[in-house]
Amino acid sequence: MSTLQFIDLALPRKIAIRQGSAIVSYFVNPIAEAQWLKYFDGIVSTAKREGNKVENHWDATAAGIELVGESLKGGANAGSTPLAHQLAIANVLTSAYVPEAAESAFQEPMMAEAVRLWCVWGAGDGDLMRRFKNLVHFFEAPTAEQYQRYRRDDSRAQIVGGSRKGMTIYRGAQRTLATLYDELIASVAGYALNGVALVGREQIARHMDTYHKVAAIAALFSAGTPAIEEDEEE
Q: 183-192 burial string, b = 16+ CB within 10 Å, else e?
């Protein structure tokens, strides 16, 4: 098992894909914010109305394949990578999420604005992919203006067609979320830059993976779940 304790944002990621009994490894360069924003813009999110029925559609396949092609080391050879491998790499690149049960040896201070992420980042010793569970983002409390800015951009949509058979195209708020992350981040745990822990708002904003930015700050702005007492059965 890998002994890595930090995700090093300055280094290429080694992604190991199992192919039958063999393992094929690829290296992905650090992905710039502009590349991630292009990926987010390429996500297709629509709601199509047919009478009283609404069909929702969300697809990031094409955007993910394009991102992989741009970020694989070797660039021009990326097109020869099997499609199944490109899809698997895209899944790894977008694997950061907020776990339901944050089980980790790392214990953060009792802060209301702490968001924990889990993700599969890269392969360590033995070409085995590792899931990191010690990633934490600590935020300052957002202001009402910042929350309103997020809600305004999150609700952006374009309606094409009539009211009976129209299609709603949702634009998303990932660009706004990335900006809000830079404004609100205070510190992080579990990330490094050339082997040194990532510290300070300016350094974090400049070097943090943008997908991780969006995943973490989106959780900060999501509504909490109220604790409701269940009715006793009679």
A: ebbebbbbbb
